[in-house]
Amino acid sequence: MTQATDIRTDHLRTALDLAASQIPVLPLRAGKVPFGNCRRCTDNACGGRPNMKTPGPCACPGPCHGWAAATTDPDLITSGPWRRAWLRASAVAYHPGGAGLTVVDLDHADAIAWARKHLPATQTVPTTRGEHWLYLGRMPSANAVRPGVDIKSTMAYARWLGFGTGTITALPDAVRQMAAKAAPTGRPVPHTATASAPVGGGACPHRTPAYLARGLAMAEQRITEATGGVHATVYRTFLAVLSTHGRCGCLTDAHVGRLFTAAQAKGETVRHCTDAWANARYALGL
């Protein structure tokens, strides 16, 4: 058995040990990123988003959709597609929020010095460039809450780097407040929704402005009336709008702003809206 195989077997063993402790795990491939969508979800045909963005647990047979694939089921972990993934994995990751934890990811020495001054001591795990501070309690994840500081809890994954040192303490209000301050407020500032004309023309196919207006109104209504799976509904709605209006240049920032506003009224963040819009554009090759 080669050294690389030994390491990957260790990853599988670690995953099973964590799962037995009710810590949801997932494999990371080279580059420390999740494995890609399974065949049934290629190019996110299922309406989900890769790399930790789907709204709930993934029902696919393989380790699909990043954080949402994290599991504590040993039978699933050792099944065909999962086992093969673990044996090709470069690292083990886990879903902190699924384990009732929050990770304050400190990316460099200045961030660590800040945390030591402003946050209560807790369990600390060394990373390649900094430290993970683990707190007991879950919360919404947030990136760049201050220079070199990310918060990873729900809808996020973190690399498993061991148990570290120190005693884990309760999630402090100071961490929650950082995320709240970092959250965008007010009307969203959308990405531009115009796209270059397709090769061979690109003339506008809409006979009247009313065609676009009616389509946008129907899209807003679809989002507003969603009773479940809001994020998937938002993505599919964005995809439908872009598939019809994304290639002729009719869409403006104001149009996109209307869609983002409807999504935010249903609880979506600007970041999630932006990601859904970008993924829809990518899926359509815009």
Write the layout of secondary structure elements.
Layout lengths: L2 H18 L4 E5 L3 E2 L39 H4 L2 H9 L2 E4 L6 E6 L2 H10 L4 E4 L4 E6 L5 E5 L2 E4 L5 E2 L9 E2 L2 H10 L26 H16 L5 H16 L7 H13 L4 H15 L2
Helix pairs in contact: 1-3, 6-7, 6-8, 7-9
In sequence order, what are the helices and strands, one letter per element? Answer: HEEHHEEHEEEEEEHHHHH
Quaternary structure annotation: single chain
Shape: globular
Please summarize the sheet with the most strands: 6 strands, mixed
The proportion of residues in beta strands is: 5-15%
Give the radius of gyration: 21 Å
Summarize the entry for a quick read:
The chain is 39% helix and 14% strand.
How would you describe this protein?
This protein has 286 residues and is α+β, with helices and mostly antiparallel strands. It contains nine helices and ten strands. Strands 4, 5, 6, 7, 8 and 10 form a six-stranded mixed sheet that branches. A four-stranded antiparallel sheet has the order 2-1-3-9, covered by helices on one side. The chain starts with a helix and ends with a helix. About 9% of the residues have low confidence.
